[in-house]
Amino acid sequence: MGLTWLTHPVLWHSSRESGGPKEMLTDAENKLIRSKWHDWYQADWDYGQTTLAFFCTGIAIMLLFQLVSKLRARSQRRSTSTGLPSGVDRIVAACRYAAARQFRVRKFDWYSPPLGVVVALCGILTYLMALLLSARPYYWPNDNMGDSPPIATRAGWMSIAVMPFMIVFATKVNWIGILAGTSHEKLQTYHRWTAFFMWITSLVHTFPYIINLTRMGMMQEEYETSSFYWTGIAALIPQTYLVGLSWGIFRNRYYEIFKKLHFIASGIFMAALFIHVDFTLTSWDYFWATLGLYSTSWLIRVLRTHYYSGIGLPAIVETLPDNMLKVSVQIPDRLKWTPGQNVFIRFLGLGPHFFSSHPFTVASIPTEDRRSLDLVLRVKGGITRRLANIAEGKTAKSMRVFVDGPYGGLAFSLRDFDAVYLIAGGSGASFTVPLLLDLIQGYKAGMVCKRIVYIVAVKTTEGMAWMDGDLAVAQQALGDEILDVQIYVTSDGDSNVGEEDANSRSVSEKEGASTHRLGRPNLPLMIFEACKVNNGRVAFAACGPDSLLYDVRNAVADRQLAIADGFGRCKDVYLHTESFGW
User: Fold this and answer.
1) H/E element holding 68?
2) Exposed e or buried b for every residue in 24-51, given b needs 16+ CB within 10 A?
3) Nearest-CA neighbor of 51 among 262, 178, 197?
4) Integer CA distances (angstroms), 161 to 49, 233, 285, 291, in order
5) Distance CA 154, CA 361 (A)
6) How far, CA to CA in Å, does 531 sit from each of 26, 97, 165, 360?
7) Gyration radius from the chain CA atoms
């Protein structure tokens, strides 16, 4: 076919010289093709840079919110936490309502992102569709006006402009997350949906060319003589694969293979797209920006991992009751983390699993006499099943690991709230236990918090074994007046306990300073009562399955809405949640 991959000579940018008015066009047609929003030679400015400005404005707004939140938290440390909510408190509560509220489609057991994320994504989609469809015409009325249909041109530039943000949303050392004050895993939703939006604009970019050339009878000729068409198809195929197989039904079920194929398909897509745009105007600038942002994030991860881990850190894998594992990693003094953070672990000597790292919440806090980073894992499939098979029948299994992190954590210290409620389901306690241990240290240092309620739901009493020692230490250090531990066992003695039956049961017993109950906790009622008896600042931190987080989110959202409406008793309610999956 005699195709060349790139136009020669290869340049940074192609020329903007339009060649002046075309004799075969009327004055009105010449004026139209050189007008704003229609000029092919300025389309990167009109659509690409406008899209960039939109995303940058959104990030700037999030940065502003973060700065205001930090300043407000600092001022609250110096002021009384009692009294009626102020106007600022009510505005903050309204914003937090949007951040907490969640929806569920019971028929498909699907949980939506928080309302605030849904609104932001709808805003992005609305902007893209408005920019894409506002200017008319979508096709040139005269074929001599240009080879590129206007709607295809603008869709192409919008796709390219979305690309850097879509890629950065997926990174671990996340530049957007740093500016917005949020952890990388909470931006994964934006990564997936902006990828979907980019795919939509890519389709709008593609099909007008096909329609136009088919109508003119030139499709086969253009495909055989121009690299733009076959490289476009070469980019669109892996892009469609990436978007289609990234939905949760595929991603969650086959995550191990999904992750590897995702990187391979992404490389093919980016390479084909780079060749496809062929340094048209400023198109390659978006690739250099994407490369710079992604490569620096990756390089920081690699350097930090080897700085902390060297050639690998010693780790011990132990089996726990209730189909769980504990991994204890001996770490150097230079590795620091805060309660609630997570790390990515790469296990050496596990065959193909060496090529991927896996996220786990740190279930311990750093202390002077014990430099161990502990992880508590629920055995399912993939890497956890492989570890369980290796450790089976042994007291402990030694191996070496790389530690990448820490990441995530809470935006505000729980020590600064009057009352703290820690809520966990199953292995989600690996998130709440270190928060409780940190509050013990805060109590000894004279923290503000004077009431802590620790709620955990486990399937069997065996699921409590790994945290019994930590809970005993907490109860001894804090006493009954400050700490209330409530343990719910959902399956022991009755594997058919349903949610409604469990919530209505009053079967309970006092064991030491802990209250043991049969069934599931009525979290909405607990959260309502918590905000009723506390008139200061209340914090909720929760980790568990989607159903638990759904109850917590919406119950807290109701309390936020009450504060915003002026009927809330609490002055401030803060929520932080961690889910099992992204």
Assistant:
1) helix 50-77
2) ebeeebbebbeeeebbbebbbebbbebb
3) 197
4) 7, 19, 10, 14
5) 43
6) 71, 15, 39, 31
7) 28
Say how far apart CA 224 and CA 523 lie, in whole Å.
64
Question: And the tokens for 353?
Answer: 């699993």
Q: What is the pTM of this model?
A: 0.90
pLDDT in tens, 309-350: 988 999 999 988 888 899 999 999 899 899 999 999 999 877
Task: List, run by run, the mean pLDDT of 10-residue segments along the chain (582 residues).
Answer: 69 85 89 93 95 96 90 74 74 90 89 93 97 95 90 96 96 93 91 96 95 84 79 94 86 80 94 93 96 96 93 91 89 90 89 81 84 88 84 84 92 90 92 94 87 91 85 89 90 45 48 72 92 88 93 95 85 88 58
Encode pLDDT of 182-240 as tens digits: 899 899 999 999 999 999 999 999 999 999 888 888 888 877 777 788 889 999 999 99
In angstroms, the CA 48 to CA 54 distance is: 10
- Which tokens belong to 197? 């939006």
- Helices of type H across 78-149: 87-100, 115-133
Distance CA 569, CA 566 (A): 9
For residues 513 and 486, give the distance between their C-alpha atoms in angstroms, rounded to a whole number.
9
**Dihedral sign of CA atoms 61, 66, 70, 73 in order:** positive
Please return the burial class of 441, using the count of CB atoms within 10 Å of its CB with bins 0-12, 13-18 and 19+.
Answer: middle
Calculate ∠ Cα 453-575-482, nearest 5°. 20
CB 421 within 8 A of CB 527: yes
Token pair 């700037």 is found at 60
In angstroms, the Cα distances linking 415 to 418, 421, 563 are 8, 12, 22
Which SS3 state, helix, strand or coil, does residue 579 take? strand
504: its two tokens: 């209505």
| Number of CB atoms found within 10 A of residue 217's CB | 8
| Type of residue numbered 435 | L
For tokens 């704003």, the residue is 36
pLDDT of residue 466: 87
Q: Residues with Cβ < 8 Å from 80, sequence gap 6 or more?
A: none
What residues pair up with 362 in beta bridges, in sequence order? 375
C-alpha 152/C-alpha 170 separation (Å) is 27
User: Which helix (H) or strand (E) is 408 found in, with range?
Assistant: strand 397-408
Q: Find tokens 């195709």 and name the residue.
A: 3
Using DSSP's 3-state secondary structure scheme, residue 486 falls into strand
Burial class (CB in 10 A: 0-12, 13-18, 19+), 513: middle
Q: How far is CA 260 from the centre of its chain?
A: 19
Residue 155, CA distances (Å) to 17, 56, 76, 228, 370 in order: 22, 19, 47, 15, 57
What pLDDT does 247 receive? 84
What is the C-alpha to C-alpha distance for residues 378 and 387, in angstroms, rounded to an integer?
Answer: 11
Contact at 8 Å (CB) between 387 and 377? yes
What is the identity of the amino acid at 352? P
pLDDT of residue 499: 40
Distance CA 306, CA 403 (A): 8
Q: What are the angstrom distances between the C-alpha of 232 and each of 207, 213, 236, 273, 274?
A: 11, 15, 6, 7, 10
